[in-house]
């Protein structure tokens, strides 16, 4: 998939630290016979994302580390795309597990400050980065598992929905869903398509209109997430599910995934620039800007 020039420029300018040898912080130690040195693990990190690739299993762990709430800012999205592209091009990597390094929050969704009080050019650049993130993740050849260890509204939910499998911590205080309508904004057609492909048309229609956020146990009931586990079991479970998916021949799994997702991906690719223009004209309306300001005020008031 070709990156748009603005993103390519951002990638070229970005300071991803080079790959280095690093011991993997979780999972592998349990499988390693005692006394043997750990098999090679490569890690790379930028400001907002940490990636560790265990070469022996072919599984990478991508952790979001952008406090306070892992919002999907332009910088975050750029780093996400770079990291995913590196893994996609690495023959040693066959699967990625996504999780948060920020307690209680998987991702708070698109960074609202990127959509408020900025220029038209900025909105267009931001939206291209959101599109790029989704095209790369939904279209990934790797097995992708979301280990949802915290709340995950809107764009955060989209990240999870775009993976092959979702495991969430069973805490009912953690919620997930596409709540855009609550902000007075509308999830674009490709958010909707991704949602429909996971939960079906009726549930998606009702949930999108109401902007529903579901506590983890509710989300499990209708398949928004595939299973719930206690927090301390999340990584172990994600590794076990990954092993199950990786037991299949890559080519068969990849072709099947592509067959299931291609129409939805192609739809955005065919209408990408139109989608950018729609977003820019929608988000720059004064009434929408007012809704976003009020929502941010509400978030601040909630604290006091
Ligand atoms: C046509 C347009 C379509 C566009 C599609 C849009 C998709 C989206 O993703 S829109 C974003 C939707 N996201 C949300 O509605 C989540 C809003 N946030 C929350 O509900 C909560 O912050 C939380 C549950 C994620 C975490 O709660 P808590 O731990 O209590 O933390 P705070 O609420 O105090 O937040 C800390 C800090 O972070 C700021 N913040 C939260 N979310 C966002 C965000 N999405 N973008 C930017 N900033 C965010 C929040 O305002 C606080 O800031 P300070 O007051 O300055 O500390």
Automatic annotation (TrEMBL):
Please describe what this protein does.
Key enzyme of fatty acid beta-oxidation. Able to isomerize both 3-cis (3Z) and 3-trans (3E) double bonds into the 2-trans (2E) form in a range of enoyl-CoA species, with a preference for (3Z)-enoyl-CoAs over (3E)-enoyl-CoAs. The catalytic efficiency of this enzyme is not affected by the fatty acyl chain length.
**A GO cellular component annotation in the UniProt record:** mitochondrial matrix
**Compartments, record wording:** Mitochondrion matrix
User: Which Gene Ontology terms cover its molecular function?
Assistant: delta(3)-delta(2)-enoyl-CoA isomerase activity
Gene this chain is encoded by: ECI1
The annotated pathway is: Lipid metabolism; fatty acid beta-oxidation
UniProt-listed PANTHER family: ENOYL-COA DELTA ISOMERASE 1, MITOCHONDRIAL, ENOYL-COA HYDRATASE-RELATED
Species of origin: Aquila chrysaetos chrysaetos
Q: Which Gene3D superfamilies match?
A: 2-enoyl-CoA Hydratase, Chain A, domain 1 (3.90.226.10), 6.10.250.170
| Keyword Mitochondrion assigned | yes
Mind listing the GO biological process terms from this record?
Answer: fatty acid beta-oxidation
Q: Which UniProt keywords apply?
A: Acetylation, Fatty acid metabolism, Isomerase, Lipid metabolism, Mitochondrion, Transit peptide
Q: What EC identifiers does the entry list?
A: 5.3.3.8
List residues traversing the bilayer. none
Q: What is this protein called?
A: Enoyl-CoA delta isomerase 1, mitochondrial
User: What Pfam families does this protein's entry cite?
Assistant: ECH_1
The UniProt entry lists the main location of this chain as mitochondrion
Please report which protein family the annotation says this sequence is part of.
Belongs to the enoyl-CoA hydratase/isomerase family.
Quaternary structure, from the entry: Homotrimer.
Per its record, the protein catalyses: (3Z)-hexenoyl-CoA = (2E)-hexenoyl-CoA; (3Z)-octenoyl-CoA = (2E)-octenoyl-CoA; (2E)-tetradecenoyl-CoA = (3Z)-tetradecenoyl-CoA; (3Z)-decenoyl-CoA = (2E)-decenoyl-CoA
């Amino acid at each position: 998939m070709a990156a748009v020039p603005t993103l390519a420029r951002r990638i070229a300018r970005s300071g991803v630290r080079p790959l280095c040898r690093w011991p993997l912080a979780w999972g592998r130690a349990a499988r390693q016979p005692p006394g043997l040195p750990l098999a090679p693990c490569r890690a790379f990190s930028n400001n907002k994302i940490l990636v560790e690739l265990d070469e022996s299993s072919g599984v990478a762990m991508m952790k979001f580390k952008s406090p306070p709430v892992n919002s999907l800012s332009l910088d975050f999205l750029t780093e996400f795309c770079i990291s995913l592209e590196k893994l996609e091009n690495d023959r040693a990597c066959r699967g990625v597990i996504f999780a948060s390094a920020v307690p209680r929050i998987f991702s708070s969704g698109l960074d609202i400050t990127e959509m408020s009080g900025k220029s038209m050019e900025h909105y267009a650049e931001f939206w291209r980065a959101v599109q790029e993130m989704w095209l790369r993740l939904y279209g990934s050849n790797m097995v992708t598992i979301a280990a949802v260890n915290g709340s995950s509204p809107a764009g955060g939910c989209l990240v999870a929905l775009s993976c092959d499998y979702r495991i969430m911590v069973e805490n009912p205080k953690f919620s997930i869903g596409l709540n855009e309508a609550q902000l007075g904004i509308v999830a674009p057609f490709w958010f909707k398509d991704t949602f429909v492909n996971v939960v079906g048309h009726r549930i998606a229609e009702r949930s999108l209109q109401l902007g529903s956020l579901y506590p983890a146990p509710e989300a499990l009931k209708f398949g928004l997430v595939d299973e719930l586990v206690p927090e301390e079991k999340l990584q172990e479970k994600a590794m076990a599910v990954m092993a199950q998916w990786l037991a299949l021949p890559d080519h068969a799994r990849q072709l099947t995934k592509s067959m299931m997702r291609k129409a939805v991906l192609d739809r955005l690719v065919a209408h990408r620039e139109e989608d950018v223009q729609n977003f820019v004209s929608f988000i720059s309306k004064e009434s929408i800007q007012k809704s976003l300001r009020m929502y941010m005020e509400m978030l601040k008031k909630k604290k006091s």
